[in-house]
Write a structure and sequence with these properties.
Neuraminidase; four-stranded antiparallel beta sheet; 294 residues; 2 domains; 20 strands; mainly beta
Length: 294
């Protein structure tokens, strides 16, 4: 019993390690099943753990291009539908439940989801499906799927597939396949500043997110330079340059294992560790008291 309790306490106290924050969820859009949730380590993205056959997700033609945890640890996904686009995902089984979705402007569909931890809100980028720009930023009510427009992103010359990621300080980043680069976006003015070119030709739906522990921006991409290559990279948020880690689901970068978006598993709040410390201390005091009375 003592060993079991100490093991449980150790798990709680050690759950804020960098290694635990490296678990990444991904939506495998062209999986053997129609849509499949996978997990992998950010250090070894070539090794997928495939969750059970999903239920409740739309067919592969209704592309899932947003995947994100909110501040409570709930997992959500979004599709390219104009309405009914938001789903909740069970992170253990991959089973999905449609929530709804309404309020997008014009011909917009959601390009990506990203949770803004600083302001406790789920953000989405809406893309009109025409070249040259016009992408808009929305907040999403995760209970109903209703979208509220915040405005058009200025200086972002992307109107098709756009990835969205929000840093811990609230700064917004977006990537587009038209210009093959990342942008930083002022969260107040929604003015976009282009970073340097990636140096490769990106294509199709893809996604990015920040590691909440290290603050590193990760990009799950498909590049057509040298053939269709599915790869995970970190992005320098100053220069925009990628550092490639490995292929996605493959030992060598190659093949079209398309990941529509990625999301890091949530990190326990500091209060969890304090509680674990109290549990450990109380147990030790109790053991000492029993020994003193024997």
């Amino acid at each position: 019993m003592k060993r079991i309790l100490f093991a449980a306490i150790a798990v709680l106290l050690g759950s804020n390690s960098t290694a635990s924050a490296q678990l990444v969820y991904g939506m495998w859009n062209n999986a053997p099943g129609s849509q499949t949730v996978v997990t992998f380590s950010a250090a070894t993205p070539n090794i997928f753990t495939v969750l059970p056959v999903p239920t409740g997700l739309p067919s592969a033609t209704n592309f899932i291009n947003g995947l994100e945890f909110d501040g409570s640890g709930a997992l959500f996904a979004s599709t390219v539908s104009a309405t009914g686009y938001l789903y909740s995902i069970n992170p253990l089984t991959g089973a999905a439940t449609q929530i709804g979705g309404s309020g997008l402007s014009g011909t917009d569909t959601i390009g990506d989801l990203s949770f803004d931890r600083l302001n406790n809100r789920m953000l989405a980028v809406g893309t009109p499906g025409v070249g040259g720009g016009g992408a808009r930023l929305y907040t999403i009510n995760t209970s109903t799927g209703a979208a509220t427009i915040l405005g058009t992103i200025g200086g972002l010359t992307e109107g098709f597939a756009v990835s969205l990621a929000v840093r811990a300080d609230g700064t917004i980043f977006a990537h587009g396949v038209e210009t093959d680069r990342w942008y930083s976006i002022n969260p107040t003015t929604l003015a976009a500043t282009p970073l340097g070119l990636l140096g490769i030709d990106t294509n199709f739906g893809q996604g990015g997110t920040f590691d909440p522990v290290t603050g590193t921006l990760y990009h799950a991409m498909i590049s057509t330079t040298g053939g269709n290559l599915s790869r995970l990279a970190t992005i320098d948020t100053t220069t925009g340059l990628p550092t490639f880690i490995n292929g996605l689901g493959t030992t060598t970068p190659g093949g079209l294992n398309q990941i529509g978006d990625i999301a890091f598993a949530p990190v326990p709040e500091p209060t969890s560790f304090v509680l674990a410390g109290f549990v450990a201390s109380a147990w030790l005091v109790r053991r000492r008291s029993k020994r003193a009375t024997v």
